[in-house]
Specification:
The chain contains six helices and 13 strands. It is an alpha/beta fold.
């Protein structure tokens, strides 16, 4: 069994399809996706279709990201739609309607709404790792975390968790295209919707697989990356 962790996808279906062809998750594997499936990239609809398809092929653990929260809250009429549209929501609705001049909720399938609202998780945890979208307060168990920590707090505010487990997160885009590594936490949002890559980390081997929207791919070892500490980078 492998544990595979994929960072923020942001509507980049080409990168996701390319990455899945590389790692080929099976029924014995746990595949954790760290949220932000929608917004900014051009094919949020395609990304959700892929994730729903994976539910029958692997042990998918899809974590909610702040952009899924914005999507659902806007749909429910609880936040101003203009703010969401400006933050990548326009690209999301266009992926459903096919026409940027005709943005409507009616094109969003009920199956997609149910997946995002009912089957996505606030967090996931195994024997050695905490999996969250954004961050976790170091002194609270995951079940006691606030939305602010789980979905909105930046990686720079991470501290060693009381459990002693390593935190794997996304949310804070690493514009180097490489994961950010601290002794107690790893951020694998590597800016796929910009000029970066979509990252999959295989925890057992430390192999990092990456793909981008051009269909390009590359890999490296987690041990090759510098570890950031409070005293500055160490190698």
């Amino acid at each position: 069994m492998r544990t595979l962790v994929i960072g923020d996808i942001h509507g980049c279906s080409m990168a996701l399809r390319t990455l899945l062809k590389i790692v080929r998750p099976g029924m014995d594997d746990v595949l954790v996706t760290l949220g932000d499936y929608v917004d900014r990239g051009s094919d949020s609809k395609g990304v959700i279709d892929i994730l729903i398809g994976l539910e029958s092929k692997t042990q998918l653990k899809p974590i909610t990201g702040n952009h899924e929260i914005l999507f659902l809250e806007t749909m429910a009429g609880r936040i101003d739609p203009h703010g969401w549209l400006a933050a990548g929501g326009a690209e999301t609705l266009t992926s459903y309607s096919g026409d940027p001049k005709k943005l409507t909720w009616s094109d969003v399938p009920l199956a997609h709404i149910e997946f995002l609202s009912e089957r996505c998780l606030r967090y996931y945890e195994d024997a050695h790792h905490l999996f969250v979208h954004a961050n976790a307060n170091s002194v609270y168990a995951l079940r006691d975390q606030s939305d602010d920590w789980l979905f909105w707090t930046r990686f720079s505010d991470a501290f060693p968790h009381v459990s002693g487990k390593t935190m794997i997160c996304g949310h804070t885009a690493q514009k180097t295209g490489l994961p950010a590594v601290r002794p107690f936490a790893i951020c694998i949002d590597t800016w796929v919707y910009g000029e970066g890559w979509l990252t999959c980390l295989e925890l057992e081997t430390g192999v990092i697989y990456q793909a981008n929207e051009k269909g390009e791919q590359r890999s490296l070892q987690l041990s090759e990356l510098e570890v950031i500490s409070d005293d500055g980078p160490k190698y």
